Amino acid sequence: MPRASSPLLLAGLLATAAVAHAAAPGKFDATVPRSLPGSPRAWTYASGAAELALAVGVAHPRTRRVAALATAAFFVGVFPANVKMAVDARHGSPRARAVTLGRLPLQVPLVLWARKVSRDA
Question: Which N-terminal stretch is annotated as signal sequence (predicted)?
Fold first, then answer.
């Protein structure tokens, strides 16, 4: 069984997120901050492509260190989308508010996980 800090688990998480962006882009379009130029769909597909590239980089030992650092930066970079989701849910159901607010602190362990994978590479 792989360890929780396993680079292959991180790569799997990233690849799963990439597939989700392609399979159900509408859910992700709604999280794109309006202040970004271009269409939300373009940002959704671009972030999915970035996640796929990061997954490949983290999975490969030769590129793992740099890809894991880039993954940590990516997790920081998508945090505004999570904030937007929480703000948009403020008038929603109590469940939607709880889920979106609960996601915010989860970015911290994701960033720390990616940094650990980088250090261990």
Answer: 1-22
